[in-house]
Amino acid sequence: MKSLLDALQDGRLVELPTNDKNEALEFLALLLEAIPGIQSSVDIVKEVREREAEGNTALGKGIACPHVRIKREGELLCAVGWSPGGIEYTAPDNKKVHIVIMYYIPDTQRVAYLKELSSLAKAVSKAPDAVMFESIADIHAIRAKLLDWVEMSVNDALPDATARMIRLEQKQRAQETALPRPPEPGKKALTVIPFTFIGLESGDYKILAQNKEFIDIFETGKCCTKLLTAPEELEADGYHITVISSLYYALNRVIRECVAVKNQ
Fold it and tell me: Is-above-0.85 flag for pTM?
């Protein structure tokens, strides 16, 4: 749920000044229009109202996801509004809506939007009833709750991503068996493994790589603990690890793109 995480980090979570549905949608649409890079010729307020007239966008359990689709290129963006008192939204479960996540969807981002909406729907389905929002009186607590959903989405996706990578590795091994490429005489074989390191505030971590043996070694070794800090290079288990880039998120979460190199 990258666009939701970006909105929470960029300050696009606001307390709505009204409990009226139309006024709340207009407020969030104007917030989206103010984002740098948004096409100034697009009347987001008008587009959102027309989309909402076509069908109710409430997911249930106090969440609604109105949206506008734009026939242009650009980034998938969203703005989030919190209504402490709740909005009468004609939701499928007849509950008031407390969280309104409004999406701006360029044509090139429709698949990304559907994936994010699917992840959000899964998180909402696992959440308790909408009354949980009625006991939250602080926007910082709302932000923490939404970040928990983002983390839940990432954790749910990791097993599937790992399974896909294992399948790719097996396919690659089959190809290498069919067409072996031994090293030249007198030269050592060089193993190069790109991987992604995901570290959480709790000290937990995951490695995404196409080499399952590499994952097994490094997720149980000391290398991952070292990667929770900010190294540029390190040696571990015969590999030379180089950190290519690091992205830092709220709650001390970090994603590092790395390369492991080993002479055999």
Answer: no
